[in-house]
Write a structure and sequence with these properties.
Helix content: over 70%
Distance between the termini: 77 Å
Radius of gyration: 32 Å
Number of strands: 2
Strand order of the largest sheet: 1-2
Number of helices: 6
Amino acid sequence: MSLQTDQGERVDSGRKKRFLAAHAACHDRVYRYFRRRTNDSATAEDLCAEVFRIAWEKSHQENDLSVLVIFGVAGNVLRNHRRSAARSANLLHQLQGQRTHDQVAETTVRDTMDRLKPDEREVLLLTYWDGLTSGEVSDLLNVSATAIRMRLHRARKELSELLRTEQESEEARR
């Protein structure tokens, strides 16, 4: 005799019985196994569900679903979870380090921008931060487009010099 799932696949009643017997015999023990080894009950429940998803797949292959097999699967699931958590923590650490580095760089650029002449700073901000073209900046500031391009050239050159000087002094302090 066989049953049909929501997806339309046929399920052997023997397979279902094997799985339900293994689930009844092991579920609470597997949950407690994970609960002792994880930080919260939600994680333990998720890992326990993963174990029984794998057990369901194994029941299709006419495999024995003994307590030892289920706990072997649980051990593998726990190792996978820990590896995943370690990778996530490492990535988070790297991203935090990158964000700190980016914040320092942004602060350095802002401080250096403050040392530019006001006209040069304004042209740089309007061009790069606000995304305006030299024609739009010239209309906004009532200055010729040629003068804006010249100011922009000088501002980039001056900013580059100031940043290079700042970097050299930072390296000398280390």
